[in-house]
Amino acid sequence: MHSLPKSIYLSIYLSIYLSIYLSIYLSIYLSIYLSIYLSIYLSIYLSIYPIYLSIYLSIYLSIYLSIYLSIYLSIYLSIYLSIYLSNYLSIYLSIYLIIYLSIYLSIYLSIYLSIYLSIYLSIYLSIYLSIYLSIYLSIYLSIYLSIYLSIYLSIYLSIYLSI
């Protein structure tokens, strides 16, 4: 009879002590670890990813826009000019505009988009995401783990020590 209250007392004491200790320890440890890890990881990852994205977008957009705009403008201008001007002038201008616009737009857009997107995305995304994710995850995980561990440990220890 006397051993039962001691085991209950011990289980309650240990569950409260361990839940408080582990929740404080894990919240501090995880918040520090995650903030350091995420800031390092995200700064490295996000400095490389925007460069890749900017190169991809610059190539894709330069090819797409040069082809699309050259075809669209050549068709539009050839129809428009053939109606209002002579056939010779419309053919000449449509060919000229196809060549000129495809070269100009591909060069201009590839240079502009690669420089702009690489600088903007690397700076903005690395700073924003590293700060946001480190703060969010450290707060979320510390709260979640402290609540989860305190409930789990109190239930587990009370059952285990009462047996």
Question: Which short descriptors sum up this protein?
Answer:
mainly alpha, 163 residues, 2 helices, membrane, transmembrane helix, rod-shaped, Plasmodium_CSP_Invasion, transmembrane, 0% strand
Explain this structure.
This protein has 163 residues and is an all-alpha fold. It has one domain (3-162). It contains two helices and no strands. The protein has helices spanning 3-84, 87-162. Helix 1 (3-84) runs antiparallel to helix 2 (87-162). The radius of gyration is 33 Å and the shape is rod-shaped. It starts with a helix and ends with a helix. The chain crosses the membrane at residues 7-26, 32-52, 59-83, 89-108, 115-135, 141-161. InterPro entries: Plasmodium_CSP_Invasion. Keywords: Membrane, Transmembrane, Transmembrane helix.
Summarize the model shown.
The chain has 163 residues and is mainly α. It has one domain (3-162). Helices cover 97% and strands 0% of the residues.
- Would you count the extended β strands for me? 0
Q: Stretches where pLDDT falls below 50 for ≥5 residues?
A: none
Secondary-structure element pattern, one letter each: HH
Q: In DSSP terms, counting alpha (H) and pi (I) runs of 4 or more, how many helices?
A: 2
Helix content: over 70%
Whole-Å distance between the termini?
13 Å
Keywords: Membrane, Transmembrane, Transmembrane helix
Topology, pairings included?
Elements: H1 3-84, H2 87-162
